[in-house]
Design a protein that fits this description.
CATH architecture of the largest domain: Alpha-Beta Barrel
Structural class: alpha/beta
Distance between the termini: 38 Å
Shape: globular
CATH class of the largest domain: Alpha Beta
Oligomer: single chain
Number of strands: 19
Number of helices: 14
Largest sheet: 10 strands, mixed
Amino acid sequence: MKEKYVNRAMSKILLKNGEIGTIDGLMLADVLIEDGKILKVIARVSDEGKAVEADEVIDCRGKVILPGLIDVHVHFREPGASHKEDWKTASSAAVAGGVTTVLDMPNNTPGIVDAASLSAKRELIAGRSFCNYGLYLGFNGSNVEEINASDVPAVKFYACDSTGDMGVVEHEDVEKFFRMCKKLIVVHAEDHDVIEANKALVLAEYEGREIPASVHSKIRPVEAACKAVERVCELALTFGRRVHIAHVSTEKELAIIKKYKLKGAKLTCEVAPHHLMLSEDDYGTLGNFMRVNPPIRSRGDVFAMWKGLKFGEIDLIATDHAPHTIEEKSLDYLHAPSGVPELDTLLPCLLNAVDAEGLTIEEVVRFCCEKPAEIFGLRGKGRIEEGFDADLVVVDMELSREVKRENLFTKCGWSPYEKSVFKGWPVMTFVGGELVFKDGEIVGEAVGQEVQV
């Protein structure tokens, strides 16, 4: 039964008897929340803990309390494509998946490229988000001054068109952007010319025949990613800019990034869950439902992504949550859009990896909480410490559950992981000290606020 919403903002809430996940490991401690903040973290010397005055006590025995996850790469589709997703459904999926803060991309309709479109998007979101949020501005080839004057955490640069038409390929425009931009630059790094040349070859090869989904990895090959990454890294080094490369997917990209870091370039990068979980072998079963930009890669590159996490070559995990309807993804290759929904399943996917000893709790906290907050300058986020925002997720590491369409909150209503059984699921999510998700249900109100940077 859905819990009746109770405003807890001015109450003292004690999360008691759980273990706290940190980058240093698990710790026996209770968490006292007041007015949306973590008031105290109380280490327990025994299972009984210490007597602490609170208006409400929530027993977390047998559970792990984590900082709310921060997803710096999502596409919530509003404005312009609310038939795929909207802020209510997407933010519901976020808190169900353990995510309490998102940064939403600017490739909307219209694109978010100036103060007016940014203000309109803010008005659209206000009061409708269950999770906290930040917004990107997009570079359109001529708006660097407006970007510098904005208060967004980062700017998105598309080195080619992906979903939408925000790609900027003119060398002079791009060089001016890197020379002048004062914001953290987040890059979709694929080369336009390589993609267009391969697309022409594929269309000629399959003329008059059905095109299989697997050609997507050939049209947008490793070469396209590496050529763009090399160019971006050179610009970052030349102009001393902070650059974050989105959704790396190949071993060769990591080698290029490492080379430029050694030269002194200020670079960070992320990997998406689908580049950790899926390989080209899955086209036979998923078809266009696993079509993403950049595409799914070989098993060797999948292994390289896991290795990159373990060896510190990849800084964080971000979903690139990009929902499309089942009808759209069921179209033929030339008309099916790229992108998959990931928010509902982010934390279950990672906790399942913890159970399989592929990750540790410490690494989940590092890649999904602390590093995103650090890189994007999100104040009060990413840690369970006194004075930090009470954005928290309580997880049951022993809970096994199958991914089913009927349990998803994303409006698009499907997942590439359907029928997979993950062990480890969120059972409670707090945003600003408010309980918004519990045991598979949205139980609170849309209390999400725009992040402070």
